[in-house]
User: Which sequence fits this backbone?
């Protein structure tokens, strides 16, 4: 029986249970096993199948009592590891990048919007070709600053897409069934 | 169900692990081993349903005695009530059944 208790000690130590708790549980277990032995009760009668698997017995007991520290791999999520936070951050960054980019472009070259009449190709060889002539169709001309609009829309679209994918991924992760208790 | 049985036996008088096993065996629950009692006691302790204290046993080393806390007594009362309701319902279903053994 002392070998069984020793194996339990080793398992608790491996699981990171504090020395004080190991000593407490091992002492209680050893006392009970000794008393049972004195009563003529074997360890197999007392523990059933657990008598052949001290590691599992010790792990289950410690887990049920809640004395196993969190596993090293199960690190707590920091601010940037939270998927929803990260998605929102990406969205905000892209949004403001688009906003600031638009402002800078517009300030560098104020948009102008004008109308002039299209020149007929047949008149380009003549003096004064290219000047609007009465009766020709109007064509709208705009400066390059207007081309910032698609960029803004693209960045916004990327931000919304990133936020949407993150939200879907988070929802799927949360909807998974919890793992059964040990 | 075993947690109710444990709470019931330590509600009569505080007991340590092996002593609970002996009390349960004396009432017919001989299949109960320490292997299932210890994790269960650990859970009851974690959930605050039992209180513990150390005291000397009969000529042996100090043992860890368990007794129900106030929350444990409430859980015991509710559990027993639910168990009796379930037992009565099952009895009502099984009562008309007559067994005939062919020879």
Assistant:
């Amino acid at each position: 029986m002392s070998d069984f208790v020793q194996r339990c000690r080793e398992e608790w130590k491996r699981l990171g249970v504090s020395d004080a708790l190991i000593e407490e549980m091992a002492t209680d277990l050893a006392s009970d096993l000794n008393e049972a032995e004195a009563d003529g009760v074997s360890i197999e009668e007392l523990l059933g199948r657990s008598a052949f698997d001290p590691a599992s017995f010790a792990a289950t007991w410690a887990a049920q009592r809640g004395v196993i520290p969190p596993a090293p791999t199960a690190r707590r999520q920091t601010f940037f590891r939270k998927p929803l936070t990260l998605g929102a951050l990406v969205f905000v960054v892209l949004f403001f990048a688009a906003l600031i980019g638009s402002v800078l472009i517009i300030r560098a070259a104020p948009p102008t919007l004008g109308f002039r009449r299209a020149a007929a190709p047949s008149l380009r060889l003549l003096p004064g070709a290219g000047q609007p002539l009465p009766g020709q169709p109007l064509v709208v001309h705009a400066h390059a600053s207007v081309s910032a609009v698609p960029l803004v829309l693209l960045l916004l679209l990327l931000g919304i897409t990133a936020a949407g994918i993150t939200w879907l991924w988070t929802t799927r992760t949360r909807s998974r069934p919890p793992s059964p208790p040990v | 169900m075993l947690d109710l049985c444990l709470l019931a036996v330590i509600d009569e008088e505080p007991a340590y692990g092996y002593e609970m096993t002996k009390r349960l065996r004396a009432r017919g629950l001989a299949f109960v081993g320490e292997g299932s009692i210890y994790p269960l006691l650990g859970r009851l302790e974690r959930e605050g349903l039992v209180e513990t204290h150390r005291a000397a046993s009969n000529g042996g080393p100090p043992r860890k005695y368990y007794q129900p806390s106030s929350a444990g007594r409430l859980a015991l009362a509710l559990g027993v009530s639910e168990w009796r309701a379930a037992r009565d319902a099952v009895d009502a279903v099984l009562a008309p059944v007559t067994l005939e053994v062919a020879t």
